[in-house]
Write a structure and sequence with these properties.
The chain has 319 residues and is mostly helical. It has a single domain (14-210, 251-282), classed as MFS general substrate transporter like domains (Growth Hormone, Chain: A, Up-down Bundle), CATH 1.20.1250. The chain contains twelve helices and two strands; from the N terminus they run E-E-H-H-H-H-H-H-H-H-H-H-H-H. It has helices at 18-49, 53-56, 58-81, 83-99, 101-107, 110-137, 144-176, 186-205, 232-253, 255-262, 268-292, 298-318, and strands at 11-12, 15-16. Helix 3 (58-81) packs antiparallel against helix 4, helix 4 (83-99) runs antiparallel to helix 8 and helix 7 (144-176) packs antiparallel against helix 11. The N and C termini lie far apart (53 Å).
């Protein structure tokens, strides 16, 4: 029996989408970096402002408020202006929020920093809204899950780099600067702003296939938003995503606190590097998952991963 020809990952109907796929994948890295760099700020603000852990949690609150506010408008923006323009708008908002960290170093208030993070989150919402469907569309439909998982693997790389950069340039520099500890925020965020702006320019000048999502359902009637909640899997997916984000955010945000309190001899900067090491395992899981989907169905892998995580949590709770 002859082997079936291997289906290309990013070529479909005579078109090669390698460059667009690389650009889309870069978005996954950028928002992973933004999220993980955030986890360094909790401990940083606790020390330079003398605020409590709970108040430092407003860092994450500001970010996810941006997601909540922008989530539905992002869908309308994609529908009205297209996915490519939506991505460019998201990148510009991301860059704007990052550049605002420069005046933040002079204003030196917690509230203004939260505003910067809120603006970044609005941009990230647009990127995340567009990136997954774009990644799935840039090649053969039968390999869509593998493309998405491969792109998301680079999200894991962003999560690794973020705490390392934050530990080195924010926590490390802050410990040496006694005059203005807000100064340590400028270099990493201004650098990110420049990088994001360059990516936006690349998107502007790169020809991207436009995605046209179906406007009507199978019966020919215009779909309504609340009709989605009639689908059991959609509701369960929302619950699963909520619990996943809650668990991930809770652990990551206060990981540095946990390490330095359990082991006081460990410096904040080193604890940030340990967080990066944890995210390395996260990325390995993403890459291995992408590889294994060549042989196993995504639904079965999801079930297996869920079961393993439940067992892992039981081990943690048991001490």
């Amino acid at each position: 029996m002859k082997n079936e020809p291997k289906v290309s990952l990013v070529s479909f109907n005579g078109k090669n989408y390698l460059v667009p796929f690389i650009l889309i994948t870069s978005l996954f890295f950028l928002w992973g970096f933004a999220h993980s760099l955030l986890d360094v700020l909790n401990k940083h603000f606790q020390e330079i402002l003398g605020i409590t852990k709970s108040r430092s949690g407003l860092v994450q609150t500001a970010l996810y408020c941006g997601y909540a506010v922008m989530a539905i408008p992002a869908g309308f923006i994609m529908s009205r202006f297209g996915y490519k323009r939506g991505i460019i708008m998201g990148l510009l908002l991301y860059a704007c929020g990052a550049f605002l960290f420069y005046p933040a170093t002079h204003i030196q208030t917690f509230e203004f920093t939260l505003l910067c993070l809120f603006i970044i989150a609005c941009g990230l919402t647009l990127l995340e809204t567009a990136a997954n469907p774009y990644s799935s569309a840039l090649g053969p439909p039968e390999r869509a899950e593998q493309r998405i998982n491969l792109s998301q693997s680079f999200n894991g790389l962003g999560w690794i780099v973020g705490p390392a950069v934050g530990g080195l340039l924010i926590l490390g520099v802050s410990a040496q600067n006694e005059t203005n500890k807000f100064d340590s925020l400028a270099l990493p965020y201004l650098s990110v702003g420049v990088l994001v702006l360059l990516v936006a320019i690349l998107f502007i000048f790169t020809k991207m296939p436009e995605i046209h999502e179906g406007e009507y359902n199978g019966q020919g009637d215009k779909g309504r938003f609340f009709d989605l909640f009639r689908h059991r899997h959609f509701v369960l997916a929302i619950i699963a995503q909520f619990l996943y984000v809650a668990a991930q955010t809770g652990v990551n945000s206060f990981f540095i606190n946990y390490v330095t309190e359990v082991k006081p001899e460990i410096a904040n900067e080193k604890a940030a590097y340990m967080l990066s090491a944890g995210f390395l395992c996260f990325m390995i899981g993403r890459f291995s998952g992408s590889l294994m989907m060549s042989w196993f169905k995504p639904t079965k892998m999801l079930s297996l991963y869920a079961a393993v995580n439940v067992l892992a949590m039981l081990v943690v709770v048991a001490g």
